[in-house]
């Protein structure tokens, strides 16, 4: 986790707008739905947006939790895009309706719907709520329809994508799935398939044992890329990502070093994905917090945990150490309660 504190800019921002979520995914990086939402009111949202505009990131992602639960998500998106900052929204599809699909078309650059299984049984098991696959498909139908309508009227609209977080459970029937969804949703632009990273709930030993892909499975996933692309219809781009390039000790992890992650209440993480916080952008200038974040990455304990990581399971161990040491008291209490996450609910 090397960085140069004097020169490393913020290239991209992930803003988790809320930790509220109707789903209970077994791999959730933010453990949403199982911690306080900490959503800002509109006045503080405007202050955070001002700060982000001042950073001039190349792009911003609205994540969570479920961003569409937040009353002001579209206002924040419109302000950011009006300043030339592209906004991608990551959604589960659970809440989607025609009105929200239209608002997304009016306000954001890209919408990505998360789908983690080729069928309802698999997806719902990973996402922890029955009916979530049906809702994700219905959301894609609605977004696809809005995008086609806007296209016919020569109006601007979002890029439409699907994110597939690969667990062991979700490994089967991918070719058929790619062919089916790319045929059904004609305006889909991309399908991104990436293995679950060992952060958040996916760092825990049970997940690592049962669901985290090992090197052989990762190799097989990578090798499947060209075949999956051949199965795609309507010029949908299919990418398969080797998350090993983001291992903390890898050279590519430098790319992630320029990503700033803001928690719902404005807290800035020391490094995207870990629970360590360096302050709040509502209370201190982000430039100062960013220097603190870069310094955190040179902390001897941090370097000792991350320096020799060569596999996802070792990365999981490092994440467990870092989150338990640097998380807030509330984070550490929540982490200590883990164990029942992921049970399917009606
Ligand atoms: S991964 Fe699942 S539980 Fe976590 S925020 Fe996304 S939809 Fe919600």
UniProtKB/TrEMBL annotation:
InterPro entries: Aldolase_TIM (IPR013785), Radical_SAM_PqqE_MftC-like (IPR050377), rSAM (IPR007197), rSAM_sf (IPR058240). GO terms for molecular function: catalytic activity; iron-sulfur cluster binding; metal ion binding. It comes from the Bacteria. Residues 7-231 form the Radical SAM core domain. The keyword Hydrolase does not apply. The keyword Iron applies. Keywords: Iron, Iron-sulfur, Metal-binding, S-adenosyl-L-methionine. This is Radical SAM core domain-containing protein.
């Amino acid at each position: 986790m090397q960085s140069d504190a004097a020169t490393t800019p913020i290239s991209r921002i992930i803003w988790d707008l809320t930790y509220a979520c109707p789903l209970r995914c077994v791999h959730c990086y933010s453990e949403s739905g199982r911690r306080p939402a900490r959503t800002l009111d509109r006045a503080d949202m405007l202050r955070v947006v001002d700060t982000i505009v001042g950073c001039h990131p190349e792009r911003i992602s609205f994540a969570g939790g479920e961003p569409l639960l937040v009353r002001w998500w579209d206002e924040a998106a419109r302000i950011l895009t009006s300043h030339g900052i592209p906004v991608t929204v990551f959604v589960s599809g659970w809440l989607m309706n025609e009105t929200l699909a239209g608002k997304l078309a009016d306000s954001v650059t890209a919408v990505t719907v998360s789908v983690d299984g080729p069928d309802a049984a698999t997806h719902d098991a990973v996402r922890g709520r029955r009916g979530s696959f049906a809702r994700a498909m219905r959301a894609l139908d609605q977004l696809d329809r809005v995008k086609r309508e806007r296209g016919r009227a020569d109006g601007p609209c979002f890029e439409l994508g699907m994110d597939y977080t690969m667990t062991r459970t979700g490994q089967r029937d991918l070719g058929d799935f790619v062919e089916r969804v790319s045929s059904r949703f004609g305006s889909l632009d991309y399908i991104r398939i990436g293995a679950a990273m060992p952060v958040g709930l996916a760092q825990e030993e049970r997940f690592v044992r049962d669901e985290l892909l090992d090197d052989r499975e990762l190799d097989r996933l990578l090798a499947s890329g060209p075949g999956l692309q051949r199965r795609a219809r309507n010029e949908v781009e299919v990418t398969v990502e080797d998350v090993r390039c983001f291992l903390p000790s890898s050279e590519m992890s430098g790319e992630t070093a320029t990503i700033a992650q803001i928690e719902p209440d404005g807290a800035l993480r020391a490094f995207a994905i870990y629970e360590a916080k360096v302050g709040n952008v509502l209370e201190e200038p982000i430039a100062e917090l960013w220097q603190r974040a870069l310094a955190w990455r040179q902390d001897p304990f941090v370097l000792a945990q991350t320096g020799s990581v060569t596999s996802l399971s070792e990365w999981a161990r490092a994440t467990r150490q870092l989150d338990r040491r640097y998380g807030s008291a509330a984070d550490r209490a929540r982490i200590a309660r883990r164990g029942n996450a992921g049970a399917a609910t009606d």
